[in-house]
Design goal:
With about 325 residues, the chain is of the alpha/beta class. It has 14 helices and seven strands.
Length: about 325
């Protein structure tokens, strides 16, 4: 089984396909098409139909060759996965046998300097997945110091957020911060290297990217809509790459499978009848990639996979 593009390595591919269990005649959604790694594997695993969504026009353009290879079986949609209900309803798709979500930024976006996602190569401070709307440079150069610090702390879990925000505001007073290298240099001047070897700019870049693309809001919308689209027996597979993403996924799946802790016996809510859960867990806890995969693909190291299945008889 070969990936559609040699530079794209889909994370935990065998685990995703094993849990999804594509079958002949099934209808599936790859809600984060990216490089098409999962899409190609799903279409090769069974004679099924696959819809694929990506907000990045470059990803949709790259997918043309894969769509031609699986003519009539792969259908590409440019849009936000948080709008999947509307996007699919417009195409008369109202029920699915499985949904796959591979969260976060794609390898293609990280590796293209012009997209401005990474501090490892110089490029414009952009970070927009859809190539529309405010850029990271807009935020860095216009947000008030306190709001900028809040963004870095909330979305990057950066403990030095106030120190970094203060340094950014001072730097932009001299000249606008326009490139990834300029921003990374400002952060590195005020934040010493981490003992773990993580670049001091890592958390701040993550925070700005999440804020620019409203990634956490999109994840919450996508999980809710995916659960409503799944037919009985349908499965939702999610791969997350950092704690903010995984926290949302874990909470959603815990609630969907009825595994939330019971209220205290002194809490009146404990007297209410509890409805039967509409989903069952397919993973008791988050699955992690194996040593072989993490050894060959460093971007897989932080991956966490969770999955649920809609009950055969919907509640």
């Amino acid at each position: 089984m070969s990936a559609p593009m040699p530079t794209h390595v889909p994370v935990m591919l065998s685990e995703v396909i094993g849990l999804l269990g594509p079958r002949d005649g099934g209808l599936y959604l790859d809600a984060t098409f990216g490089g098409g790694g999962y899409a190609g594997a799903i279409l090769e695993a069974a004679s099924c139909t696959l819809w694929a969504i990506d907000r990045d026009p470059d990803a949709i353009a790259r997918g043309a060759s894969l769509a031609a290879r699986f003519l009539g079986r792969l259908h590409l949609i440019q849009g936000r996965f948080g709008d999947m209900l509307t996007l699919l309803a417009e195409r008369d798709v109202t029920a699915l046998d499985g949904v796959v979500l591979d969260l976060g930024v794609s390898s293609f976006q990280l590796d293209e300097p012009a997209r401005g996602f990474s501090f490892r190569t110089d490029g414009p401070l952009d970070m927009r997945m859809s190539r529309s709307g405010p850029t990271a440079a807009d935020l860095v150069n216009t947000l008030a110091e306190r709001e900028l610090a809040d963004v870095l702390f909330e979305f990057g879990e950066e403990r030095a957020s106030r120190r970094i925000a203060r340094a950014i505001v001072a730097a932009r007073a001299e000249a606008p911060i326009a490139t990834t290298s300029e921003l990374a240099a400002v952060i590195r001047r005020v934040l010493p290297p981490d003992r773990s070897g993580i670049d001091p700019a890592t958390r701040s870049f993550q925070a700005l990217r999440i804020r620019v693309n409203d990634e956490l809001g999109e994840i919450e919308a996508a999980l809710d809509q995916a659960s409503r689209l799944l037919a009985p027996g349908g499965r939702l597979i999610v791969v997350a790459f950092h704690s903010l993403e995984d926290r949302i996924v874990k909470r959603f799946m815990t609630q969907a499978t009825g595994r939330m802790p019971s209220p205290s016996r002194h809490d009146p809510r404990g007297l209410a009848d509890r409805t039967a859960p509409q989903f069952r867990p397919l993973t008791a806890r988050a699955l992690r990639p194996g040593a072989v995969e993490t050894g060959s693909n460093t971007r897989a190291r932080s991956a966490r996979l969770r999955a649920i299945e809609r009950s055969e008889v919907a509640a």
